[in-house]
Amino acid sequence: MSDLSLEQVDSARFARLVEASRVLNSTSDLNELLDFIIREAAALTGTEAASIMLLDAQTRELRFAAASAQAVEELAGMPVGLDDSVAGTVFRTNEPLIVGDVANEPRWNSQVDQASGFRTDSILGVPMHNVAGETVGVLEALNKPAGDFSQQDVETLSTLADLAGVAVERARLVSELREAYSQLNELDQLKSKFIAVASHELRTPLSIILGYLSFLREKADNPETVAQLDTVLGAAVRLRGLIEDMLNLQYVERGEPQLAAEPIDFCALVRHLIEERRGTMQAKKLHVSLHLPQAPLQIRGDGQAMETVVGNLLNNAIKFTQLGGSIDVVLARHGREAWLEVRDDGIGIPSDKLEQVFTRFYQVEPPLVRSYEGLGLGLAVARDLLEAQGGRIWVRSEKGEGSCFYVAMPLLTAATR
Ligand code: ADP
Fold this sequence. Notes:
The protein has about 425 residues and is an alpha+beta fold. It is about 45% helix and about 20% strand. It contains 11 helices and 12 strands. Strand 9 and strand 10 form a beta hairpin. Helix 6 packs antiparallel against helix 7 and helix 7 packs across helix 10 (about 305-320). The relative contact order is 0.08. Bound molecules: adenosine-5'-diphosphate (ADP). Adenosine-5'-diphosphate (ADP) binds near residues 347 and 378.
C-alpha cells in the first residue's frame, strides 16, 4: 500500500480523502461504492472521468467494474489483458503509470473509447490493493485538462485506490455472504415445506389403513389372523409415529412458530384425536376413558398446533403404557382456562427427570438400550407451541406409577369472542 505523504497532498485534498475513507467504510453496497470511488477519483485529481477495473480471478483479465462514461455495460463485456494494455501494465508492475498522450501510447486500446463514446487523452493509472496488500484492480483517472498529472495526483489517487480496494473487497464478500445466506434460506424453506407437505399427505392414507386394520382385527376370530393383523397394525403405528415426528421436526426447524389465534372447539379436537387412535389402543388392549364437560370449551389458538400437542401426549400415553393398561383423558374448565389431563398408568417418569422430558431430544431411556421409538421432540415441541399460544404444560409422575400430563390454555372469553 502506498503511504500518503502529508507534504505532498494539500489540506483540501487531505480532508476530502479523510471524508472519502469515512464513506467507503460506511457502505457495503458494491455499486454505490464503485460510483462513489469514480466520482472521488475524478474530483481529487481534477480530471474529466475515471474508471475501475477489477481482476477476474478465473480468466486473470481485468474487467471494467465502473466508469464515468455512460456505456459501462458495453465496457463490462470487454476484457482488458494484463500483458498488452495500460491498465494491465499498472496491475503487473504494481506501480502507478502516467500516459500523457494516449495517441503516442502503443498499449492504449482505442476500442475502449469506441465502446464508451468517451475520448481519452491522458491517463493516470494506479493499482488497487486489498487488505492483504494483494493487487486486485486498477483505478484510472482520465484527461487532466489543466496541465500534466502531478506527483500529488499520483499520491492522492494511490491512497484512494487502496481505501477503495479494501472497501470493494469487503463489499464483494458481504454480497457473496448475502447470496449464500439467501440460497441456504431458500433451501431450508423448501425442505421445511417438503416435510410439512409430505407428513400431511402421508397422514391421511395412513389413517384409512389404520381404521380398516382395526376394524378387521375386531372382526377376526381366528387367532392366527389376529396375530398377523397385530403385526401389520404395529408396523402402521410405527409409521404414524415417524410421520408425527416429522411434523414435530417441522415446528422445531421453524424457530419461533407462526401460529394462528382462532377459536377452537377443544372438546371436539380431543375427541377426534382419541378416535383416530382407537384402533391402536384396542390393539394394545388399553382401557380409555374420556371425560368432557357439559358445556363446550372454546379456546383461542392454532388448530393444527393444538392437534400436534394433544396428539403427542396421547401417543406418549399409548407408547409408555403396558398392554392392558389404562388412559384417562379429562377436559375441564378451570377459571379462565381450559385444562386437559392425560393420565396413564404406564412406566412413569423418575421425579428428577420431570423437567428434562421437555428438553429437545431428551429421552429418559438411555439411547443404547432404548425400547421405545421416537426422537424425543414431542414434549419440547408441545411446550414451545403452548407457550407461543399463551398456554402451559407440566407433568406429575413417579417411576412405575404412571404419568399425568396437564395442558392449560386460555379460554376464548365472551369479551373476545
Ligand atoms: P419421544 O416420545 O419421541 O421420546 P417426547 O418428547 O414426547 O419424545 O418425550 C420425551 C421422553 O419423556 C420420552 O422419551 C419418555 O422418556 C418420557 N415420557 C414422555 N411421556 C411419557 C409418559 N406418558 N410416560 C412415561 N414417560 C414419558
